[in-house]
Amino acid sequence: MEETISLKELLQTLRKRISLILSITFIAILISGVISYFFLTPIYQASTQLLINQSKNEQATVQYNDVQTNLQLINTYNVIIKSPAILELVIKDLKLDMTAGELNGKITVQNETNSQVVNLSVQDTSATMAAKIANKTAEIFKKEIVNIMSVDNVSILAKAEVADHSSPIKPKPLLNVAIALVVGLMVGVGLAFLLEYFDNTIKNEEEIEKLIGVPVLGTIAIIDDAQMKKIQNSKAKQNASLRGETIGS
């Protein structure tokens, strides 16, 4: 016979284990908040934009092949921007205490599809330093690309600037806490059902009826010592009262 669980039983399980679920959720939120606010280092981002001008020829009309060539050129530029040939000069000019590989990890270069604009983003623990690295990288790339590829078709559209009240892009404590809340609830509910599944003890007559398939005719109450003494004292008083009435009559 296949055993089914009703919605009422599910709710009863959740109600019975509600303290466990809330405790796990609270611990998850607490740990997430403490780590996000006190242990994770804030990371700031600054971005600058470069325009890769399309090579001009005598024809004013842009052909499909010209567009494809230009896009391939931009992809090449994206690689050159993060190459040691550029980054070593950035490190030297800004006197950075890091290697070209470490600086490479801070820089992200990308462009939108079919766009001649290249976005150069830098992440750093300092908003000011992130802006300095972004601007210096764009400046050196614009200068060195003339020597590297014998072309002068790079323009700086927008320089990276530091806002008065810059906000870090990560960590995001509120988002982390929200994720911890959801994860804590999921773990708590899962653990509650797991404990209920492995709990083979019988707690009331309803479970007995379900287990053996016959109705319960009676139950034996459990009386502790305090209740037993109270019952004995009550009976003793009743007996004393009855004896007094018998003597009086």
From TrEMBL:
Keywords: Cell membrane, Membrane, Transmembrane, Transmembrane helix
Main location: membrane
Subcellular location: Cell membrane
Membrane-crossing segments per the record: 20-40, 174-195
Protein's UniProt keywords contain Transmembrane: yes
Topology within the bilayer: Multi-pass membrane protein
Sequence ranges assigned to domain Tyrosine-protein kinase G-rich in this UniProt record: 142-194
Keyword Transmembrane helix: yes
UniProt domain Polysaccharide chain length determinant N-terminal: residue ranges: 3-94
UniProt family annotation: Belongs to the CpsC/CapA family.
Protein name from the UniProt record: YveK family protein
Source organism of the structure: Bacillus salipaludis
